[in-house]
Amino acid sequence: SIGGRILAAADAFDAVTSRRAYREALSQPAAVKYLEAHVGTLLDPRVYQALRSVVERRGTLEFIDIDVKEK
Q1: Which helix (H) or strand (E) holds 51?
Q2: Is residue 68 very low, low, confident or very high in pLDDT (cuts 50, 70, 90)?
Q3: What is the DSSP letter of 5?
Q4: Which of 3, 17, 43, 69 lies 20 to 30 Å (CA to CA) from residue 11?
Q5: What is the pLDDT of residue 4?
Q6: What is the pLDDT of residues 23-67, one digit of tens each?
């Protein structure tokens, strides 16, 4: 389903932009480039193009800005 393909792309993007014990996080532009190699296998080409377009236009894939203040 298209929803599943979108979630797969978002999960892959989150995975490579998150720090792991075995590697540092990729920047969002570097993550887009990295994921390009998986188009057609792990990622749906249309979903990847949409993800890439959003990151290039906004500079991020984050849509919610949360301002957490310490009390």
Answers
A1: helix 45-58
A2: low
A3: H
A4: 69
A5: 93
A6: 999 998 899 999 999 999 999 999 999 999 988 887 777 665 555
Which sign, positive or negative, has the C-alpha torsion 60, 3, 21, 34? negative
Within 8 A by CB and 6+ apart from 51, the residues are 9, 10, 13, 32, 35, 61
End-to-end CA distance of the chain: 43
Name all contacts of 14-18 with Cβ < 8 Å and 24+ positions apart.
17/61
Query: Tokens representing 21?
Result: 């014990």
Residues 6+ apart with CB under 8 A from 52: 32, 36
